[in-house]
Design a protein that fits this description.
The protein is an alpha+beta fold. The protein has two domains: 71 residues, no CATH class; 53 residues. The chain contains seven helices and four strands; from the N terminus they run E-E-H-H-E-E-H-H-H-H-H. The protein has a four-stranded antiparallel β-sheet with strand order 2-3-1-4. Helix 4 packs antiparallel against helix 5 and helix 6 crosses helix 7.
Amino acid sequence: MADDAYLFLLPERHPRLGAALAAVTPLECAETPAVHGWLQAHGTSESSEHVRILPAGSDVLIPEDAERLPVPLSEDETARVHRECASPSVTHMEAELLEYKHTTEDWEALVHRALTAGIPAPRIVQLTGLDPQNVAHLIQA
């Protein structure tokens, strides 16, 4: 496991960003002394709507003045965080990409739809197990 996500405290009057930690629990990292201590130091609990989580690649969206803590996630936990943070259309498209692992028909059309929905090529590769060069070839075509 690596730092796959960031916990952060959403400042007051800031638009909702990421997923509420409570929406993706249970997470192994939430049971660690580091997370318990971080929550306690900020006088909050994991059920607070202000305690949010974002995947590591999205940490640039976290407000500069927000308190943050990098946390490791399992592959399953990372997928849950991505789904909870994604818009419904992206979530639906990612579910189709996961289903791809069970079929190989019409994969080019599926990848084109995913790219059109705004899913980055590395995420498509991660979800489908496709060769990165095959996905890159479709982008260049």
